[in-house]
Amino acid sequence: MSRRSLLVAAMALAASSASAHVTLENRQAVIGSPYKAVFVVPHGCAGSATVKLRVQIPPGVIATEAKATPGWEVATVTGKYTGEYEFQGKKVAEGITEVDWSGGKLPDKTRETFVIDTFLTNNLKPNTTLYFPVVQECEQGVSRWIEIPADADHPHTTKWPAPGVKLLPAP
Amino acid sequence: MACAGRETAASAVIRLVAAIAIVLSACCFANEASAHASLVSTEPSDGSMMANAPKTVRLRFNEPITPASIKLIDGEGRARDDVSVSARDDTIEISLPNDLPRGTQVVSYRVFSADGHPVGGSLVFSLGMSANKVIVPADRVPALDALIWLARVSIYLGLFAGVGGAFFGAWISRKSSAQQVIVAALVIGFAGAAVAWGLQGLDLLGLTPIDILASAPWLAAADTSLAPSLLVAIVAMALAMMALLNVSGRSKRMLSAVAILGVGTALAASGHASTASPQWLIRPMVFLHGIGVAFWIGALAPLAVMAKRPAASLLVILNRFSRVAVPVVAALALTGLVLAVVQLVSVRALVATNYGLILSIKLVLVAGLLGLAALNRFRLTPRLALDPLNTHALVRSILLECVIATGILAVVAGWRFTPPPRALVAAAVKPLAIHIHTDVAMFQVLISPGTVGKDSFVLQLMEGDASPLVAKETTLILSLPDRGIEPLQRTATLGADGDWRVPDVPIPYPGRWHMRIEALVTDFRKVTLEDDFDVPER
Predict the structure, then answer these.
(1) What is d(CA B196, CA B206) in angstroms, rounded to the nearest whole number?
(2) Of A31, A39, B457, B514, which is least packed with CB atoms within 10 Å of its CB?
């Protein structure tokens, strides 16, 4: 009984550490393995409803597959990668570099998630934070979640931190 | 029975913790949806120009907020305390005084959003057609200046005679002497630090000494760079006091060593010198200079007392002090020289400016102090070896050193009121040109006329290799941390010549302003450069 209460308390407190920014739901990922990037949009731009979300795929992230979100159309931009990567025995040099969701309307004080399946190549550096710059376009105004915090553990030091995921070394 | 009862109590506590955690997380989730507060609209709008003063200023946010600090700086550059602030849900209403002068008024606000994050900014509006009227800063109150000066001298006494004295007792003489003098210096220092805090607030708000009883000046001073400096000074003096009261020699040495480092830190944290560029050079110089001064001045009172009642150990202690004092004096001279060169800019400024005159007087006094120190070391100390009880000359010489040292502190405290020639030279150069260079980019900023009033900014953006940097949008953000003026944001417009321009930016105060330029290069990449610039006092 008491142990379960403690567990509930711990989980509740852990969950509450989520912030008011656009963030990634999974804060940790292992290099050399698939990563499901779940972008959490907790609100609009200064009170205005979100109408478009654009996510830039950072170098070293390949095999991107955007997931449909009910009520939104998903589109992708493809281009040359900055490097060449080994993936499932083949060399890959180009692919999706940006994913956009549009055509929907997310009222200000409403939470929604947007999902991209990716693969984190071994070219990424372990024990660093990987940032996915996000542009949130609203009926009025734009919020650019594109700033890279100087200190990855304290994203609040910048006003518009890009959502980040901590990279763990391959086991 | 008792055991079972305890178990119930324990699980009750755990359940309570769980319940609180759930409530907390529920609150946080609610906040998460509502996010940080953003300003939705203002009345009057930012940058507007009007013939008659509005009765109120309204700031509307996208969610309920709590005001933390609201400041009004009127068209004459005076911080006003006769505004009343009321907050209802998502709106802050600021009732303005009726007697606002013509010119540019700045409302600087800091609010807490529901999730506890502070959000700050500034709103500017102008009264009358006085777009280019230069604002004259508020007149100084002479009585207040005298008190500020006295508080500063008191802090110096506490830091140098107090902390330095405790350090001398722990490390050099290794015995307690002149305890009362050192304790008195520390007590004076504590009082000086507390009073200086309140006085800074009075100076900031343009109030008279009697207003020190109100809370406003104390709160206002907390936002300035003096506050951390005073806090470090108080901690350093408290550590020195603990060192004096401690009996163990090891603890004394530890405490007093940390305290004397605190002296350097406190001095490097504020003041004219520590705001000069290059910061990486100036701050360590001030830090070392402060420690050296504390070492030297701290030794004077204990040495005088010991020389008055000579014991066999006096010669040993004098020799030990001299061995350390020689490199310390060398370091003092070197750091002092570097600081003087940076601040003075030219030799002529030594006599041509108030700042330079103070430095000249200080140098004369320091020369006297050095002469006496040399006399003690090369004449009186050797003589003491021959005749250990004849210390009259030594006592006189050290007491004279004490007097001169106090004189130096009194003179140096006057720097609080004089801008260094460095700032005055900057004032004469028009426009103010600032070059910010990082690995990523290079921004050239021209500010004209570069004085208090309304200024135009021209921003030339270049890549790190000096090729033009093409930006989609450029934003200029200014703040004055020393005065607690929150960020003032302006969007630049691109001219045909490729330069970005921001006209009519209000600079209501002199001082060290902070500039942040954000250039949006692609939708996903922003280049941000920051730097400080000095707006000279008139």
Answers:
(1) 15
(2) B514
ipTM of the complex: 0.77
Instruction: Give the separation between CA B127 and CA B140, rounded to whole angstroms.
Output: 25
Amino acid at A93: A
Please tell me the distance from the alpha carbon of residue B214 to that of residue B221, in angstroms, as a whole number.
12
Closest partner residue to B62 (CB to CB) among A47, A54, A146 is: A47
Write down the H helix ranges in B35-160: 142-156
Higher local confidence (pLDDT), A11 or B54: B54
Angle at B230 between CA B228 and CA B233, to 5 degrees: 110
User: What's CA B316's distance to the chain center, in Å?
Assistant: 41
Task: Supply B218's token pair.
Answer: 């104390």
- Average pLDDT for residues B8-31, to the nearest whole number? 49
pLDDT of residue A18: 41
Nearby residues of A134 by Cβ (< 8 Å), 6 or more positions away:
A22, A39, A53, A54, A55, A56, A144, A145, A146, A162, A163
Chain A interface, Cβ < 8 Å to B: 1-2, 5-6, 8-10, 12-13, 15-16, 18-21, 42-43, 45-47, 54, 56, 108-111, 133, 135, 144, 146-147, 156
Overall average pLDDT of the B242-269 stretch: 92
- Closest CB to B18 among A6, A16, A46: A6
* Bridge partner list, B68: none
Per-residue pLDDT tens over the stretch B181-234: 999 999 999 999 999 998 887 876 667 788 788 887 788 778 777 888 999 999
Asked if residues B83 and B71 have their Cβ atoms less than 8 Å apart, the reply is no
Confidence of residue A139 (pLDDT cuts 50, 70, 90): very high
pLDDT on residue A8: 47
User: In B114-172, at which residue ranges do the beta strands (DSSP E only) sit?
Assistant: 118-127
B35 → closest Cβ in A5, A8, A43: A43
Contact yes or no for A135 and B22 at CB 8 A:
no
Interface test with B, best of A134, A144, A157, A160 (most B CBs within 10 A): A144
Contact A42 B33 (CB under 8 A): yes
CB atoms B520 and A13 under 8 Å: no
Q: Give me the mean pLDDT over the A57-84 stretch.
A: 92
Amino acid found at B111 = V
Partner residues linked to A61 by β-bridges = A120
Which carries the bigger pLDDT value, residue B293 or residue A17?
B293
Confidence (pTM): 0.49
Identify the sign of the CA torsion B215, B217, B222, B226.
Answer: negative
**CA angle (B378, B381, B387) in 5-degree steps:** 130
